[in-house]
Amino acid sequence: MDGTINGSLNMIGYGLAAIGPGVGIGLIFAAYINGVARQPEARGVLQGIAILGFALAEALAIIGIGLAFVLS
Amino acid sequence: MRRAGIGDALHLVNVAQAAEGEEFHAPGPGDFEFPPLFGEGTFFTKPMLVIVLGSLLIAGLFYLASRRASLVPAKMQFVGESVYGFVRNGIVGDTIGHDGRKFVPYLTTLFCFIAVLNLSGIIPVLQLPATSKIAIPLFLALISWVVFNYVGIRRHGFLGYFKNMMFPPGLPKPIYLLLAPLELFSTVIIRPITLTLRLTLNMFAGHLVLLLTVLGGEYLLVEKGGLLAVASVIPFAFSIILTFFEAFVQVLQAYVFVLLTALYIAGALAEEH
């Protein structure tokens, strides 16, 4: 019980960096749900767009975890 | 400073049993390094085995699906046609449109290849998503990069393609100073990089999380014992839930890769607005 914590500070940085894409992905799916609720027949069109937006927002989080492992 | 709490209470319980058990090693990038399968000096590793098995599986499935093609599809033919139809109607139809017919075979192959290599991460015994090794997504992304640049240059000519990409009409002149290099950079350099990283690191991170839950549960059960052995139910339950989640993510990432490739091809083919 010497009070030391081992590990990489990178991972805390990554956790902070993941907040942004997390909020972004939430907003994208919120908009998608809103859209489908208002106009259920547009679901097919909206789904592709929502997943595309999700993929683009998620790329930021993914680049973050890549850098968290690569930079040390 | 460790906070006194339930952890310490539990620790007291099993000090007698565990008696300084082995320390827990969290999984890391080292878990993705594999020695050659057939001893030192050979080159054939586990990811390669997964690729070979996956390719054979896809080839076999599509051979069976197309062997006795008839107007009224039998079971295997139906499976093959629904995958093909999904890519043609669900991906190509919405993005490239009618011009995209000739890209459907490539995109279907890409989708099946990525999906199978991703799903190898949750298949017992194999349990390694081969796409978590960066070489495979990198190569697939480079093929897609060559394809969309090639069809763009074929359609518009070399200068026309870059003019289309860098100078979309209808903007005030000074904006182009900023826009043209950005567009060039994003299309030629960023696109293949993000395609690669998205697929690789999704599989990498997903596999890491699964490893963490399974190894953590195993550590509690085997090394710690006592009350903590009972607590190992929680990480094991999470490993099962996360396995289903991973299956979803793996198919979704294959879909995203193919969708983005189709969008890039559509962008390269598009006329000036």
Would you give an account of this structure?
The complex is a heterodimer of chains A (about 70) and B (about 270). Chain A has 3 helices and no strands. Chain A has helices spanning about 10-15, 20-40, 45-70. In chain A, helix 1 (about 10-15) packs antiparallel against helix 3 and helix 2 (about 20-40) runs antiparallel to helix 3 (about 45-70). Chain A is elongated, with a radius of gyration of 18 Å. Chain B is mainly alpha-helical and about 270 residues long. Chain B has one domain (about 1-270). The longest helix of chain B has about 50 residues, at about 175-225. Residues about 1-20 of chain B have low confidence and may be disordered. The chains are: A mainly alpha (about 70), B mainly alpha (about 270).
Terminal Cα separation of chain A, in Å? Answer: 27 Å
Radius of gyration of chain A: 18 Å
Largest sheet of chain A: none
**Taking all residues together, what is the mean pLDDT of chain B?**
85
Globally, the shape of chain B reads: globular
Question: What is the CATH class designation of the domain at 21-70 in chain A?
Answer: Mainly Alpha
Beta content of chain A comes to under 5%
Shape of chain A: elongated
Helix percentage range of chain B: over 70%
Helix coverage percent of chain A:
over 70%
Classified in CATH, the superfamily of the domain at 21-70 in chain A is F1F0 ATP synthase subunit C
Overall mean pLDDT of chain A stands at 87
Q: How is this fold's topology laid out?
A:
The complex is a heterodimer of chains A (72) and B (273).
Chain A: H1 9-17, H2 19-38, H3 43-70
Helix pairs in contact in A: 1-3, 2-3
Chain B: H1 6-18, H2 46-67, H3 75-95, H4 104-119, H5 135-156, H6 158-166, H7 173-224, H8 227-231, H9 233-269
Defining traits:
heterodimer; A: 72 residues; mainly alpha; F1FO ATP Synthase; elongated; B: 273 residues; 9 helices
Q: What would a concise description of this structure say?
A:
The complex is a heterodimer of chains A (72) and B (273). By secondary structure, chain A is mostly helical. Chain A has helices at residues 9-17, 19-38, 43-70.
